[in-house]
C-alpha cells in the first residue's frame, strides 16, 4: 500500500469524527423563537410608523401650503392664520431655563455623587432618590410647580409666567441630567484617575483636567437628550399655566415683562388645538406635531452624531 | 542627562553570578544603603479584611527591589501603601508604621498629594491619558506649578529620553499617547512618572501586558533608572525578579488569607539559597 492510498482512505478516527460533527439538524424551536422576536419588532415599529404616517397625512398639506409662515405665525382663532411661532418661542425660553438651571446644578450634583461622596448608606440613599425622582410622573412636577413657583413665589415669577414654567421643567429634568452625567463620569476608568493622582495631582486637578474632559462628550449627549425631553413635556406646563393666545411678544417689550408675562409652548399649542371643534384645527394639530417631532429628531440626531464623533475606547 | 552604560553592563543575565558582578556595591555590603522605606508591624485592611499582615520590611535606596509571591498575597496592596494610593479605595486603612526617609507616611499632617509627587507609580496596564504625548509628560510638572514653554519642552524631552522613548516619538509629540504600542505606552507612563523628579518609582507588574521584547526594554530601562531612583517592582514573573532586581521580597498567604512576608534578601541569595522552605518551593517552581 502506498502513502497515497493511505491518505485517500479515511481512517477509523476520521470516520468517527465525521459521524459526530455532521449531524446538523434544523432547530424548529429556535426558528419559532426568532420569528416571535421579529414579530415583536414589527408590531412595535408598525404602531409607531402608522401613527407617524397618520400625522404626516393630516398635517403634511398644511406645512407644504403655509411653509415657513406656519412656523412664524402667531396663535389665532382663524385656522387659516394660526401658527406655532409663539409656541416655538415659549419652548425655547423654557429650554434656556433648563440649560441655565438644570445643567449646571445637575452636572454639579453628579460630580459630587460620583467623585466626592463616600460610598455609604447616605450616598446610596441619595442615588436611589435621584433615580426615583427621574421616575416621578411629570404631572406631579406640574403640581409642585403650581404650588411653589406659581403661588408661593409669585412675587419673583409673576405667577403663571414663563419663569414658573421654565423652572418647573428644569426641576423635572434635573434628575435625568444627574443620572446621565453620573453615568458619563463613571465611564472614565479608575486607571486614568490613578494616573493623575500618581503624578501628584490633587483631586480637583484630576477632575478638572482629566475626568471632566473625558466625560464631557457623554455629559453633552445626555444633556441634549434631556433637552428634547424638556421640549416635548406637556402635562406640567398645563398645570403651571401655559396659555394659548395671551402670549405677547411685542416689539419693545422688556425682558422682565416677557419673562413674567403669559406664555405658551409648542406641546401646549398641540394640546389646545386638538380640543378645537373645527376640522381645520385637526390638520393644524398634526402640522404642529410634525414641527415638534422634527425639532426632537434634530436634537436626538445631534446627540447621536456627537456621541459617535467623540466615542472613546480605553 | 544621559546615562552611558558599557555594553557588558547592559547585558542582563539570569545567572546569579553575573547579577552579583554587575553590582559593585554588593562588595560594599558592609555599608548598606540607606533605607528609603521602613515598615514595622505593617498591616493593610480593606474594611474588616486584612490583606497584608504584620510586615517588617526595609526598602533600600537606589536599588531595585522586587516583590514576588502568588496571586492574592497583597503585593499590589503593599506597593500602593508606599505612595498612599490605597487612600483612594473606600474602606482601605493601614496599621503599624510606614516611614519614608524616617517620616511617618500616615501621620495626619502628611499631604498624600505631595507624597505621590515624590513617589511615582507605573501601573499594570499602561494608562496614558487620552491626550498628546507631550501633554502626558507635561501634566505632572504643570500641576506642580512649572511654567514656561521652553522649560516644559526641555523637561518633556529629558523625561522621554530617560524613558528611552524620545527617538521613537520626537517627531510626533502631538499625537495621542494612546496611539502608541503597548510597550511604548508603558515607557510613556515611565516618562510621565519621572517628569516630576520623584525619588522613588513604584511599578505594579509593569510588563504583564507586554511582549518579551518590550519587557526586556523596560527591564533595561529600570537598570538605567536605578542610578537615580529607588525602584520597587511587583512582578508575577520570577525570571524578571531574578534578572532585574537587586533585592527580592517574597510574600505568601496565611491561613487567614492575609499576605505576609516570608523572606527578603539579596535577589541572588533568595533565588539560589533561600532560607525558608516556602521560598524554596516557590522559586523552584514547585508551588505557585
How does this structure look, described?
The complex is a heterodimer of chains A (314) and B (288). Chain A has helices spanning 3-8, 12-21, 28-66, 68-72, 85-116, 121-135, 138-152, 154-157, 162-186, 190-198, 203-232, 235-239, 255-260, 266-274, 279-310. Chain A has 314 residues and is mainly alpha-helical. Chain A has a domain at 89-266: MetI-like (MetI-like fold). The longest helix of chain A has 39 residues, at 28-66. The radius of gyration of chain A is 28 Å and the shape is flat. Chain A starts with a helix and ends with a helix. In chain A, 34% of the residues are buried. With 288 residues, chain B is an alpha/beta fold. In chain B, the strands form two sheets. In chain B, strands 6-7-8-3-9-10 form a six-stranded mixed β-sheet, sandwiched between helices. A four-stranded antiparallel β-sheet of chain B has the order 2-1-4-5, covered by helices on one side. In chain B, helix 10 links the parallel strand 7 (200-204) and strand 8. In chain B, helix 7 packs across helix 9 and helix 9 (182-194) packs parallel to helix 10. Mean pLDDT of chain B is 87; it is low at 1-30. The A-B interface holds A 118-119, 189, 191-202, 205, 209-210, 214, 312, 314 and B 83, 85, 88, 90, 113-114, 116-118, 120-121, 123, 125, 127-130, 139-140, 143-144, 189, 192-193, 195-196.
Amino acid at each position: 500500500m502506498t502513502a497515497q492510498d493511505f491518505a485517500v482512505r479515511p481512517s477509523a478516527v476520521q470516520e468517527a469524527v465525521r459521524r459526530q460533527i455532521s449531524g446538523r439538524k434544523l432547530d424548529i424551536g429556535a426558528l419559532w423563537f426568532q420569528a416571535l422576536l421579529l414579530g415583536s419588532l414589527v408590531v412595535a415599529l408598525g404602531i409607531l410608523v402608522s401613527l407617524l404616517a397618520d400625522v404626516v397625512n393630516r398635517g403634511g398639506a398644511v406645512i407644504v401650503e403655509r411653509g415657513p409662515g406656519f412656523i412664524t405665525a402667531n396663535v389665532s382663532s382663524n385656522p387659516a392664520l394660526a401658527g406655532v411661532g409663539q409656541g416655538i418661542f415659549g419652548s425655547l425660553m423654557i429650554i434656556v431655563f433648563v440649560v441655565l438651571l438644570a445643567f449646571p446644578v445637575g452636572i454639579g450634583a453628579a460630580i459630587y455623587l460620583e467623585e466626592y461622596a463616600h460610598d455609604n448608606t447616605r450616598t446610596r440613599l441619595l442615588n436611589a432618590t435621584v433615580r426615583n425622582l427621574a421616575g416621578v410622573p411629570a404631572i406631579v412636577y406640574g403640581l409642585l410647580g403650581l404650588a411653589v413657583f406659581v403661588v408661593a413665589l409669585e412675587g419673583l415669577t409673576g405667577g403663571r409666567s414663563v419663569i414658573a414654567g421654565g423652572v418647573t421643567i428644569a426641576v423635572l429634568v434635573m434628575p435625568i441630567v444627574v443620572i446621565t452625567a453620573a453615568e458619563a463620569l463613571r465611564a472614565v476608568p479608575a486607571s486614568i484617575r490613578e494616573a493623575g493622582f500618581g503624578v501628584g495631582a490633587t483631586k480637583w486637578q484630576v477632575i478638572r483636567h482629566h475626568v471632566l474632559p473625558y466625560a464631557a462628550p457623554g455629559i453633552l449627549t445626555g444633556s441634549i437628550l434631556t433637552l428634547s425631553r424638556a421640549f416635548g413635556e406637556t402635562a406640567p406646563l398645563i398645570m403651571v399655566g401655559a396659555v394659548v393666545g395671551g402670549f405677547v411678544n411685542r416689539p419693545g417689550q422688556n425682558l422682565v415683562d416677557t419673562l413674567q408675562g403669559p406664555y405658551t409652548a409648542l406641546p401646549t399649542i398641540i394640546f389646545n388645538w386638538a380640543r378645537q371643534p373645527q376640522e381645520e384645527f385637526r390638520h393644524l394639530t398634526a402640522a404642529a406635531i410634525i414641527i415638534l417631532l422634527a425639532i426632537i429628531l434634530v436634537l436626538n440626531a445631534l446627540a447621536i452624531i456627537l456621541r459617535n464623533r467623540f466615542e472613546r475606547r480605553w | 542627562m544621559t546615562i552611558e552604560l558599557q555594553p557588558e553592563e547592559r547585558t542582563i543575565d539570569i545567572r546569579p553570578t553575573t547579577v552579583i558582578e554587575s553590582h559593585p556595591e554588593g562588595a560594599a555590603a558592609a555599608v548598606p544603603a540607606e533605607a528609603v522605606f521602613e515598615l514595622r508591624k505593617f498591616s493593610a485592611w480593606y474594611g474588616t479584611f486584612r490583606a497584608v499582615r504584620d510586615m517588617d520590611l526595609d526598602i533600600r535606596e537606589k536599588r531595585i527591589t522586587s516583590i514576588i509571591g502568588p496571586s492574592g498575597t497583597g503585593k499590589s496592596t503593599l506597593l500602593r501603601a508606599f505612595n498612599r494610593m490605597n487612600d483612594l479605595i473606600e474602606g482601605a486603612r493601614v496599621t503599624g508604621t510606614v516611614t519614608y526617609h524616617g517620616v511617618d507616611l500616615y501621620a495626619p499632617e502628611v499631604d498624600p498629594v505631595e507624597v505621590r509627587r515624590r513617589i511615582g507609580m507605573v501601573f499594570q496596564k499602561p494608562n496614558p491619558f487620552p491626550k498628546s504625548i507631550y501633554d502626558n509628560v507635561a501634566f505632572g510638572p504643570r500641576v506642580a506649578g512649572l511654567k514656561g514653554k521652553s522649560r516644559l519642552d526641555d523637561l518633556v524631552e529629558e523625561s522621554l529620553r530617560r524613558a528611552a522613548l524620545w527617538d521613537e516619538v520626537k517627531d510626533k509629540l502631538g499625537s495621542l499617547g494612546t496611539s502608541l504600542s503597548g510597550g511604548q505606552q508603558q515607557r510613556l507612563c515611565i516618562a510621565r512618572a519621572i517628569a516630576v523628579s520623584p525619588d522613588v518609582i513604584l511599578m505594579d507588574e509593569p510588563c504583564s501586558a507586554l511582549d518579551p521584547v518590550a519587557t526586556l526594554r523596560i527591564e533595561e530601562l529600570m537598570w538605567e533608572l536605578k542610578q537615580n531612583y529607588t525602584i520597587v517592582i511587583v512582578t508575577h514573573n520570577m525570571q524578571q525578579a531574578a534578572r532585574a532586581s537587586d533585592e527580592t521580597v517574597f510574600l505568601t498567604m496565611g491561613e487567614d488569607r492575609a499576605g505576609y512576608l516570608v523572606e527578603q534578601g539579596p535577589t541572588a541569595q533568595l533565588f539560589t539559597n533561600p532560607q525558608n522552605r516556602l521560598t524554596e518551593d516557590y522559586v523552584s517552581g514547585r508551588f505557585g
